[in-house]
UniProtKB/TrEMBL annotation:
One of its GO terms (cellular component) is membrane. The chain crosses the membrane at residues 58-77, 83-107, 119-138, 167-188, 200-220. This is Sphingolipid delta(4)-desaturase. It is a multi-pass membrane protein. Pathway: Lipid metabolism; sphingolipid metabolism. Pfam families: FA_desaturase, Lipid_DES. One of its GO terms (molecular function) is sphingolipid delta-4 desaturase activity. It comes from Ascobolus immersus RN42. Delta(4)-fatty-acid desaturase which introduces a double bond at the 4-position in the long-chain base (LCB) of ceramides. The keyword ATP-binding does not apply.
Length: 359
């Protein structure tokens, strides 16, 4: 079982990576990612946690509610100029919050946590995708599941920044640019790093989205509605309070635990995922409970706090993020933080990953 003393002992070995010239490299480790190990330990100590796994029926109703809110807002703004305070504030306060919620609904549904049948989950993901305006739910799922199964593995985990990003954006101005346009990096990087096949699910995602967009523009809101959807997407992944979760989840800050680069099976893997337990989880399917989610991706959003309560001795010692809104300025202005602050490991398995096979 992980203890704070063990973590502290393990983390002092690569403090140098965040100082001086050594700041120009990733935080490399030979250790296996910590989530599978901790999952096995928790199941051994608390076998009842497996009863928390399974679909959450509430998810589909939340999706339908937020989709309706976005459609209503788009209709409200149909005659409102883009360059107006009404359009901007509605997009920032309502639209970006709703878009982030729908991003994370698709994240939740990608784990088949809305229905038992995979097909129903794919269909609901496409519904959640509608007010996003751009078809992406089918593409998100395989990339995200690979992120879980190969966390930190260069060339597989597309959540990791590329080396060119880290080099070019290693300054206050660069990090500001990254945080402002983060949604574009998040959307385009996977296709540049790892090419995956185009499937029938992708095809139907595109067809459904294009048909919806045409109906929206031609019969309901005009172009203004689609512009509202896409602008909301941009703001949701830009300088927005909820966007802090993109950085807080896996970037290692200098006061956090650092992984050990040494291959020592007796060492406890230091944290490379960080949870947030604040009120903004209400809008984001509890994605802030990110350690809990990575440990048990089959546990839905409504039961993650129960998981943490049951296995509190495993989670209490771990470092946490205290604020998503403050994460962004801390990331930008602290000289020792940046895109290099990610844990990486080599691919030891060298084998194809089956995204539909549960761990």
């Amino acid at each position: 079982m992980a203890t704070s003393t063990a973590i502290e002992a393990n983390t002092s070995t690569i403090e140098k990576h965040l100082d001086g010239a050594d700041n120009q490299d990733w935080l490399w480790t030979f250790q296996e990612e910590p989530h599978r190990t901790r999952r096995m330990q928790i199941i051994k100590a608390h076998p009842e946690v497996t009863k928390l796994c399974g679909p959450e029926p509430l998810t589909k109703w939340v999706v339908l509610l937020v989709v309706s809110i976005q459609l209503g807002a788009a209709y409200f703004l149909r005659n409102t100029p883009f360059f107006s305070w009404t359009f901007f504030l509605t997009s920032y306060i309502v639209g970006a919050t709703a878009s982030q919620n729908l991003f994370l609904a698709i994240h939740e549904i990608s784990h088949n946590l809305a229905f038992r049948k995979p097909l129903y989950n794919r269909m609901l993901a496409m519904v959640a995708n509608l007010p996003i305006g751009i078809p992406y739910s089918a593409s998100f799922r395989p990339y995200h599941l690979i992120h879980h199964k190969a966390m930190g593995v260069e060339g597989l985990d597309t959540d990791l920044p590329t080396k060119i990003e880290a080099i070019l954006l290693n300054s206050v101005a660069g990090k500001t640019f990254f945080c402002t346009f983060q949604i574009l990096f998040y959307a385009l990087r996977p296709m540049a790093v790892l090419q995956l096949p185009f499937t029938m699910t992708h095809f139907w995602n595109v067809v459904v989205q294009v048909v919806f967009d045409i109906i929206l523009v031609k019969y309901i809101t005009g172009w203004q509605g689609l512009i509202y959807f896409i602008f909301s997407d941009f703001l949701a992944g830009s300088l927005h309070p909820l966007a802090g979760h993109f950085i807080s989840e896996h970037y290692v800050f200098d006061e956090d635990a650092k992984p050990s680069p040494r291959s020592n099976p007796s060492e406890i893997a230091a944290p490379e995922t960080f949870s947030y337990y604040g009120p903004l989880n209400f809008f984001t399917y509890n994605v802030g409970l990110h350690n809990e989610h990575h440990d048990f991706p089959a546990v839905p959003w409504t039961r993650l706090y129960k998981l943490r309560e049951i296995a509190s001795e495993f989670y209490d010692p771990l470092p946490v993020c205290d604020s998503w809104p403050l994460t962004i300025p801390r990331f930008i202005f602290h000289s020792k933080r940046g895109l290099w602050g990610r844990v990486k490991r080599e691919d030891k398995k060298k084998a194809p990953i089956d995204v539909d096979k549960e761990d």
